[in-house]
Structure prediction request, 81 residues.
Amino acid sequence: MSKHEKALKRLQSYPTDFTWAELKSLRQAFGYELKVTGGSGRKFVRPEAAFMIHEPHPRKLLKSYQVRAVLEFLKKEGHIQ
Prediction:
């Protein structure tokens, strides 16, 4: 199982300690480019889709609502079931 597959499996378990680095790794695996917007806003972009999220700080852990939003987006785009 690759690093990306492990991160995706972990994300699907709704962890409370999913990191920004893990999310960036998944972004790369699905072919999204990271765009910096204002402040802590970040956008994952592909020609056919975009996802906006705030980079967590000072701790680099995603909040539970962010984990849910990422999973919903990946489902909507057909990356996961």
